[in-house]
Design a protein that fits this description.
This protein folds into two domains: 165 residues, no CATH class; 120 residues, LytTr DNA-binding domain (OB fold (Dihydrolipoamide Acetyltransferase, E2P), Beta Barrel). It is 63% helix and 16% strand. Strands 5-4-3-7-6 form a five-stranded antiparallel sheet, covered by helices on one side. A hairpin with a 4-residue loop joins strand 6 and strand 7.
């Protein structure tokens, strides 16, 4: 990771070959001609001045490289407080003190320690210190510009994401409106279906309250509540021995029913009671009963004469018959 970062230095804004060359030449020139009291041609074209200029350019190249690499390597604007403090210390040590130490070491090696304390050389050292300070300020501005570019890039990305989110939100709003419209349509359809179902239920309920007799000669519909019972004719038989079933209304009217048996009728009239194999009656048609010498006669609204019950039938049904008669008397 560190090696990769070192090679990336040459692609960073801290490494600008033209600017580095300009700074090296400028630093070497300023250091050579400081304190700028002799710019005569005879002085400038001296070989000694040229070699001094070349030496100062090389030293400028060295400490400019150190300062630029220091700012590149320690540049962590988004780090925590501890990292930023260590970075600041690194700027001071490697970006300021180290170049100045190298310059002092150069003077000591090339000219001796005695010259280091010379009055004119003190000006050179302070001049180098000023150049190093300005160089650090320059690379600080490079870092701030890079941070600003990153912030602008991040801001543009956020704005782009915001526009995308806004477009997506608008699409979702459109979809939501469509869903609401669809939901309202479904609710309207559901209400219509509910009304139709209610009508059909009412019709079905009404139909369940009706009973139809259909023969070859007529078609007649009756309310089930008006039917008193069904009685098989003991004497007559239909085609193929089929029993003839008479349907009696509570009013006493009678009609021939075309059903096959009382059992099939009991499925249609589950509230009716099968008193005997020949009689299926509505509880509402029973008005009373009488006992005379062990013979029980059942009084029905639709028959003028009482219906005589066999002993076994009476024993099987007397409880509910008595209950109906008692309730009738109580009311």
């Amino acid at each position: 990771m560190k090696r990769k970062k070192i090679f990336n230095y040459f692609r960073s804004p801290y490494f600008d070959a033209k600017m580095l060359l300009l700074l090296c030449v400028l630093g070497g020139t300023l250091a050579t001609f400081f304190p700028f009291n002799d710019f005569s041609v005879s002085y400038i074209i001296r070989w000694k001045v040229f070699f001094l200029w070349l030496q100062n350019c090389l030293m400028s190249t060295l400490f400019i490289a150190i300062v630029s690499f220091t700012w590149y390597f320690l540049d962590e604007p988004d780090g925590d407080l501890a990292n930023r403090l260590w970075s600041s210390l690194g700027y001071i040590v490697f970006g300021g003190i180290l170049p100045l130490v190298l310059i002092i070491a150069e003077i000591v090696v090339l000219y001796g320690a005695d010259l280091l304390l010379h009055h004119d050389m003190q000006y050179h050292i302070w001049f180098y210190a000023a150049l190093i300070f300005l160089l650090n300020m320059y690379y600080r501005s490079v870092g701030l510009k890079e941070q600003l570019k990153d912030r602008i890039s991040d801001l543009q990305k956020l704005l782009s994401d915001r526009e995308k989110d806004k477009s997506l939100l608008q699409l979702k709003d459109v979809d939501l409106s469509k869903l609401k419209t669809s939901l309202l349509q479904k609710e309207s359809e559901l209400a219509t279906l509910y009304k139709e179902n209610m009508v059909l239920s009412q019709q079905a309920t009404e139909w369940q309250k009706l009973y139809t007799i259909k023969t070859t000669s007529f078609f007649k519909v009756f309310h089930k509540s008006d039917i008193g019972g069904f009685l098989i004719d003991k004497e007559l038989r239909g085609t193929g021995g089929k029993p003839i079933i008479n349907m009696y209304m509570l009013s006493g009217e009678s009609y021939i029913d075309n059903s096959d048996s009382l059992i099939s009728l009991q499925h249609i009239f589950p509230e009716f009671k099968s008193v005997t194999r020949q009689l299926l009656v509505s509880p509402d048609s029973i008005t009373g009963y009488s006992e005379d010498g062990g013979v029980v006669a059942l009084h029905l609204k639709f028959l003028e004469e009482p219906y005589i019950l066999p002993g076994y039938s009476w024993r099987s049904h007397k409880d509910w018959i008595k209950e109906i008669v008692d309730n009738e008397k109580a009311s």
